[in-house]
Amino acid sequence: xxxxxxKLAARSNPSQRIIALGIVFAFLYFASSIVITLLLxxxxxxxxxxxxxxxxxxxxxxxxxxLLVVLAVMAILVGMGYLVADRAEQFVTAWPRYSALLRRIxxxxxxxxxxxxxxxxxxxxxxxxxxxxxxxxxxxxxxxWLFRGVGSLYSILLVATFVPFLVFFMLAAKRRIWKATMELxxxxxxxxxxxxxxxxxxMLRSFVAGNALVALILMLGSWAFFLAIRLxxxxxxxxxxxxxxxxxxxxxxxxxxxxxxxGMAQWSTVGPYIGIAATLSLLHVIGLNVLMPAIVGRRxxxxxxxxTIALLFWGWLWGAIGLILAIPITAAIKVVxxxxxxxxxxxxxxxx
Length: 352
Known about the structure:
Largest sheet: none
Order of helices and strands: HHHHHHHHHHHHHHHH
Structural class: mainly alpha
Helix content: over 70%
Radius of gyration: 26 Å
Shape: globular
């Protein structure tokens, strides 16, 4: 009787694991705002912890040091936002010119589509010409798009409101949180748990620092290039293009959009656009294939296949923010697999 119960439990384990995975994925999807806020706070806390530790070494209490560091980061972000907004004011003033240009381009595109439709209709067999054409789907009104954006606006407000407090609490109570986390595991496993947490913290810190450094290089490089070709609004365009260029794979193309849009009012030939695409693609290759592996690659230890799958999955689950968090999440999963008995093959596959 006991043997049959053991066999029944063993047979039910796979189904239970599938159900558990389904519950986890459903939670990650429906509670995405909460999970993303927590993950961003963890990333920032790991990144800022050395600064708090430095203040602690000069006999500043940890809570006070954490408060000073969080306030300093907020002041830097506010200053950067003010600088960007001040430079972007000129672009907002010139927006009517760009909106008229966009309307002209869309009108020309619609005319070309109409010409193609007439040509297709001309070669359509007579038997099919009498059929009623399918009704075109009208684009949703602007009001509907605005209401669709309420969800994303709520997520942004949630992150902006709670992340500073979460980062402060994580930094101020680091030792208590660390001790409480270690006590969740049996004594014989605490050493391996400590090693895993140390590797995760080192990896996350390197990832944030490396991405910040590469982003700064890409933004400065884009800004200098746009200044050299005398593109309008080079500072704002360089920042936006540099940040887009940081997105793995897709960034090589996304970075073209801001300068192409600004350049529509300046150039009527194809040459400048080809030069912009080639230069920004070169910056993307240097940033993500040379600088990023040299700065972060030694800490992350992920192969190209696992990175691509992670970007696809987390990008599908959480959108743009999923592309940003995909690599640190996958790297943390690899560290956990490397330190859990029986999960080592999965860790080796992620890093093969």
